[in-house]
Amino acid sequence: MKTIIKNTTTFVGENFDRQDSIDILIEDDLVKRIDKQINASDADEVFDGKDFFVTPGFINAHFHPSQQFNRALGVGISHDKQMDLLHATDKIKKPDDKYWLSYLAVLEGLRAGTTCFYSVGSEIETQIKLYNKLGVRAACTMIPKDIEANEKDESVRAKTWDTKERIKTAEELHKKYHSDLVRVHFGVANVRYASDELILGMQKLAEKYDVYFHMHAAEANKYVESVMKRTGHRPVEHLYKTGALNHRVSLAHMTKLMPEEIKFLAEKKAHVVHCPRANSYVAVGVCPMKELIDEGVNVCLGSDAAINNNSNRVLGDAHAAHDKLADRYEKADIIDYITLFKMLTINGAKAMGLEKQIGTIEEGKKADLVLWSKNEYPFIPGFNLLADLIFADDGCMAHTVFINGKKVLENYKSTMMNEEELKQQAKKIAHRFYSLFKERIFKNL
Ligand SMILES: [Zn+2]
């Protein structure tokens, strides 16, 4: 299959060099050629790109699709209470319910230019199914806990698993489902509720199958205190001392870091996923993004979940990351938009071990491309299109999206699913869920 995007504007390579009046040839799953006036006579499809600009797809490096149910239920409550809410609502959801709502979370991200998700949760079989159905790239990662939250009432306590059983199941799921488009990585929930045996066992599998490892870490004071009580060390310090930091490891949130922990991350080449809006929503502090970048740590971006971000558009997190940093240092030039754009794209690819395949537009890389209409409001006058994307993020909608060379979104609609039917189905399920929520949970919050 050959598709040519003719006469367009694009941004090539890791420095996002702007090229105008350029053609992009997509052959099967790859960007085959980027050149002036490519012969289109044998192309299966020619897309007139004159009124568009093309960027690499964004990478949401920390994402819980199944939390779509809980959007706006956690307004104004603390991080700890929000975790209680999350675990309580998990008990009244059916796995199939999560499936339908998760579609909407992924589509919302896709419509805002995300083509790859580091997708976490307990029902990863459900997630694998939906990414395959939508034709969207993902690394699905189970994030189990094996330390019981005894301090919590049973009604809000997360499910815990047998350590060996979870490691065995994770390996079986990898063997059964891992593919080029929908990968199966390994992970655990966080240092507070995962034993060293679980963390190191999952990491061993990541190495064995040459994939990556993901978890939450250093997110809130209560978590840090609890880890210190159990291990005598702060979370990242503990991971360092147990040999659990390496180039395959990405850690989400990281709002509670000491300077020596930043050095540990840099030394071991671990990656950090900054989730600025999710952190603000539950007031857990600010990830020291500048200090991490200055120390040489790869920092990328995640939207986290609809329960604490309310948005699944990681593009908005680039804007938020800028604003938090500018406010903190009272300096407008503390971070440039190209660095933010790297955090949205190639840095996320590095955190997933996919930098040779995705994250930039280059000949020989996967055709994960987003076409934005220059006629939309955020891009008029359009003097600096990449900065427009980041700073006018609220209004930016992808017109057409290719993933793995396949057109999965066209004229703002999924080509893989009937979105209207999906919304109706999801609304029905959400209505039933909300009745149960009000009856069983709301009064106890
Ligand atoms: Zn999370």
Describe what you observe in this structure:
There is one protein chain. This protein has 445 residues and is an alpha/beta fold. It folds into 2 domains: 2-56 and 367-414, Roll (Urease, subunit C, domain 1), CATH 2.30.40.10; 58-351, TIM Barrel. Helix content is 38%, strand content 22%. The protein is built from 15 helices and 18 strands. The protein has helices at residues 79-90, 95-111, 124-134, 163-177, 196-208, 221-231, 235-241, 259-268, 276-281, 289-295, 314-329, 337-344, 346-351, 385-391, 419-440, and strands spanning 2-12, 17-27, 30-35, 45-48, 52-56, 58-64, 114-121, 137-142, 182-187, 213-217, 249-253, 271-274, 298-301, 304-305, 369-373, 400-403, 406-410, 413-414. The strands form 2 sheets. Strands 1, 2, 3, 4, 5, 15, 16, 17 and 18 form a 9-stranded mixed sheet that branches. Strands 13-12-11-10-9-8-7-6-14 form a 9-stranded parallel sheet, sandwiched between helices. Helix 2 crosses helix 15 (419-440) and helix 4 (163-177) runs parallel beside helix 5. The longest helix has 22 residues, at 419-440. The model has no long low-confidence stretch (mean pLDDT 94). Bound molecules: zinc ion (ZN). Zinc ion binds at residues 62, 64, 216, 252, 304-305.
